[in-house]
Amino acid sequence: MRHTFEGPHSGDVTVVDELGTSTGPVLVYLHSEWGAFEEPPLPGELLDGNRVLVVHLPGWGVSTSVRPAAGLPDLALVVWWALDRLDVGEIRLVGHGIGATLAAEMAAAQPGRVGSLALLAPWGMFDEADPGADMFALLPRDLNPLIYADPDGPVATAQQPRPADAHETGLAVIRRVQMLGTASNYLFPIPDTGIAERLYRLAEVPVLLVWGARDGVVPPSLAALWTGYLPHARSEVVQDAAHMVPYESADARKLILEFLA
């Protein structure tokens, strides 16, 4: 089921897809800077008995906004606004990439409504000693090996299929510019979003952090920074996965299932 809301600002459209059962506990998924693919990277078991809400973030596809949010804390309020339209109370939050950073912002804004928080390869902190690659400066052939453990494997080819002709090539370029252009509003030039200053608000929220060992844009070494601010969090590095860790790794999806079960 798809929910489409006009707002919160004049001219905006916010879209939320609802999966699973309409009467179970609410699980919210926030996609990465690469947009929402056909299916969220969640274990199938979570669709049984849970009301799963997949939020399409404004600027990445079907959700649109007249202007970008001033920052991720403001975008978090937009998502809460959409969830309020669905009469949602307490939720469990799963986010990937920029969606993970946004999930942390949502939890910091309303920690009493978040029962648990799973953050997969989150942006938001920066270490000069291990900065990661600048995804805004790289061509796909150079970037894909940094976000996929196997850039020629089934996950990468399904998400970024090789264009069949010049028309499809043009569409792929437009889509890439749209996604990275929207992401740059929040992550460029340095992906330090200031989230660290608000993580004290999550002291009572169970947190899972998952990193891809081969992530070249959000280095797994950042786990030390995150756990420094979230000492109660569980942090796991998954082998044979890069930035697209929840799509590439069954081990990552198993960690999510065990954490949320």
Give the spatial strand order of the biggest sheet. Answer: 1-2-4-3-5-6-7-8
Could you tell me the mean pLDDT? 95
General form: globular
Secondary structure tally: strands = 8
Order of helices and strands: EEEEHEHEHHHEHEHH
CATH superfamily membership, which one? Alpha/Beta hydrolase fold, catalytic domain
Beta fraction of the residues?
A: 15-25%
Which fold name fills CATH's third level, the topology? Rossmann fold
> Which CATH class?
Alpha Beta
Determine Rg (CA atoms, Å).
17 Å
Largest sheet: 8 strands, mixed
CATH architecture: 3-Layer(aba) Sandwich
The helix content is 25-40%
Distance between the termini: 24 Å
Can you characterise this structure?
With 261 residues, this protein is of the alpha/beta class. Helices cover 32% and strands 18% of the residues. It has 8 helices and 8 strands. The protein has helices at residues 72-85, 98-109, 140-147, 154-159, 166-187, 223-229, 245-248, 250-260, and strands spanning 2-6, 13-20, 26-30, 51-56, 91-96, 114-120, 207-212, 234-238. Helix 1 (72-85) packs across helix 2.
